Amino acid sequence: MSLYSLNDVSYFKLNNEINRPVNGQIPLHKDKEALAAFLKENVEPNTKTFSSIKEKVDFLIEEDYLEEEFLAKYSSEFIEQLYTFLDEQQFTFKSFMAAYKFYSQYALKTNDGAYYLESYEDRVAFNALYFADGNEELALALADEMIHQRYQPATPSFLNAGRKRRGELVSCFLIQLTDDMNSIGRGINSALQLSRIGGGVGITLSNLREAGAPIKGYEGAASGVMPVMKLFEDSFSYSNQLGQRQGAGVVYLNVFHPDIMAFLSAKKENADEKIRVKTLSLGVLVPDKFYELARKNEDMYLFSPYSVEREYGQPFSYIDITEKYDELVQNPRIRKTKIKARELENELSKLQQESGYPYIINVDTANRANPVAGKIIMSNLCSEILQVQEPSAINGKQEYEVLGTDISCNLGSTNIVNLMDSPDFGRSVRTMTRALTYVTDASDIDVVPSIQNGNSLNHTIGLGAMGLHTYFAKNQMEYGSKDSLEFTDIYFMLLNYWTLMESNQIAKERNESFHNFEQSKYADGSYFTPYIEADYQPKSAKVKALFEGIHIPTGDDWKALSEAIQKDGLYHQNRLAVAPNGSISYINDTSASLHPITRLIEERQEKKIGKIYYPAAHLSNDTIGYYKSAYDMDMRKVIDVYATAQRHIDQGMSMTLFMRSDIPEGLYEWKTTTKQTTRDLNILRHYAFHKGIKSIYYVRTFTDDAEEIGSNDCESCVI
């Protein structure tokens, strides 16, 4: 029997029965039955077996499935020892969805796709051996973190580590364009190359002159950003990893760019085909000044990047619009157009209602919190990467006269539920930091020199988190409650502390810090003042019990860390970022990112299979009351949770807003009708801004006519 000839299997039917209440009860046991059936009917008969670990490893090397180089750094005896350790942990999947996702998307298969060559333990082993780079102690520590699902590398890393034929280990890329044809041409080439090797690509168009701007004295000659957007969309469609995945990209534009209205209209359903972008994502960079003008219902001026750059000698992205707004308005040499700020704000909300776009980057908020020298000018495909960049200068031969810095994202995630059970929280986080450090050290994207340069100078990583709502429900805390906010505050403070500790240790070992460390708030100690002066010891009895046995750094601990960092530096310019981590969270049997769940029994549409159902992790009679759907929740609670975590995260978070087209009565005090309006989204964006949120990812709107009858509708359900 091979994967090509699977028939008469029972696991899909069993899994589907979860969504059919029986006598008012959710039959969760059906998921366990589906899991057992999947392992018996699918995995066991279709896994290639070997007589020993050595035989398996030798086969995988000889048949070009695995790279030999990383395995050659270890003795056969140690690899056997590692496998013995993993076997002793007795890992088991906890849901059908977790096992199905792993074997369908992550497990190595034979070239003809007929047989599995890896178990979960194998993938963990190869990840641990690869990221430890010959360090046996680190390999065992990494294996320990991953087999207990305290640490989850990002999909590109987890999927590709050790494979002979693979994509890059990094998750995504950010590149910027300057206002000249050479930069645009180089940018398109970069997008083609980066899309080919994997990961989404973020591009900022803010520096490009607007439609109608002069070109070498020819008034009204420039075509603006719209044709460039279309060029990038076509590039991503073409460069799609041999058809295995759709190339993915996002373009960003400053809200004060004169082409902003045309930019937003490109995503509307009724847009002209000449300008409509179907697959490209849109993001808007929003300085503080826009919120002020919209709040006061004033006119706003849009400024020509061409004339701004001529006047200030810097690309538009690097000008502080909020600081210089009045100066720009009064300067007769700056081309400008006038619109109503409130009208633009409503256009943003209309488009978010219709398509979920654009992403919102509160760029001044990000820069105010930024502890390193330089300016953040954009974000990535999921809006959580916020790092400083420097522009490049490219000549007519497409050569770099000035090599700037662009960004590659090296991501991983803590599983909050499991990390809280770690025998040593700090050691776990330090081990994860080492794994991510290997990814940044091993990354060498030479096809895009600005990406390569940024990575080699700054060694950035992004450790995040998943499973926050699962943890709240498991411990009977309402999402957004006082206890939940206190827990979030301390948890992310701990991630910050221990990643700083390990980054300092690596800098000390290597006698190397990130570029311009000496100009950072880490180097002068000012970054640490709030931590030294604050008291992060748990206040409530509930939270105190949750952190029992976990060391909470005191002001003296932070002072000692500050002194160590001022003396020996930090290896990583950036350390923390919270990605959406949707697909990989199923394998971890936990809720995605920091979001509330959307359904008790989540429905996934698999391409050739149909619907698969995933019950919320740890769902029981004790937790069901704490698993309120995001669509029924006041989004200010979500913003409060994210804002609490954001205080400790040096980059950003992929925060999604979940709305209903018909909002439940009484959810928002300003509502006089249940129909969702642009005003609702305007108010929530302003609330997020005032709470210090750096970015808003999607706005997802649920329409009630899409509701499915099933366990989610059974309000009185028990398990």
Automatic annotation (TrEMBL):
<keyword id="KW-0021">Allosteric enzyme</keyword>
<comment type="similarity">
    <text>Belongs to the ribonucleoside diphosphate reductase large chain family.</text>
</comment>
<dbReference type="GO" id="GO:0005971">
    <property type="term" value="C:ribonucleoside-diphosphate reductase complex"/>
</dbReference>
<dbReference type="InterPro" id="IPR013509">
    <property type="entry name" value="RNR_lsu_N"/>
</dbReference>
<keyword id="KW-0560">Oxidoreductase</keyword>
<dbReference type="InterPro" id="IPR008926">
    <property type="entry name" value="RNR_R1-su_N"/>
</dbReference>
<keyword id="KW-0547">Nucleotide-binding</keyword>
<dbReference type="InterPro" id="IPR039718">
    <property type="entry name" value="Rrm1"/>
</dbReference>
<dbReference type="GO" id="GO:0005524">
    <property type="term" value="F:ATP binding"/>
</dbReference>
<keyword id="KW-0215">Deoxyribonucleotide synthesis</keyword>
<dbReference type="InterPro" id="IPR000788">
    <property type="entry name" value="RNR_lg_C"/>
</dbReference>
<dbReference type="GO" id="GO:0009263">
    <property type="term" value="P:deoxyribonucleotide biosynthetic process"/>
</dbReference>
<protein>
    <recommendedName>
        <fullName>Ribonucleoside-diphosphate reductase</fullName>
        <ecNumber>1.17.4.1</ecNumber>
    </recommendedName>
</protein>
<feature type="domain" description="Ribonucleotide reductase large subunit">
    <location>
        <begin position="558"/>
        <end position="580"/>
    </location>
</feature>
<dbReference type="GO" id="GO:0004748">
    <property type="term" value="F:ribonucleoside-diphosphate reductase activity, thioredoxin disulfide as acceptor"/>
</dbReference>
<comment type="function">
    <text>Provides the precursors necessary for DNA synthesis. Catalyzes the biosynthesis of deoxyribonucleotides from the corresponding ribonucleotides.</text>
</comment>
<keyword id="KW-1015">Disulfide bond</keyword>
<keyword id="KW-0067">ATP-binding</keyword>
<dbReference type="Pfam" id="PF08343">
    <property type="entry name" value="RNR_N"/>
</dbReference>
<dbReference type="Pfam" id="PF00317">
    <property type="entry name" value="Ribonuc_red_lgN"/>
</dbReference>
<dbReference type="InterPro" id="IPR013346">
    <property type="entry name" value="NrdE_NrdA_C"/>
</dbReference>
<dbReference type="InterPro" id="IPR013554">
    <property type="entry name" value="RNR_N"/>
</dbReference>
<dbReference type="InterPro" id="IPR026459">
    <property type="entry name" value="RNR_1b_NrdE"/>
</dbReference>
<dbReference type="Pfam" id="PF02867">
    <property type="entry name" value="Ribonuc_red_lgC"/>
</dbReference>
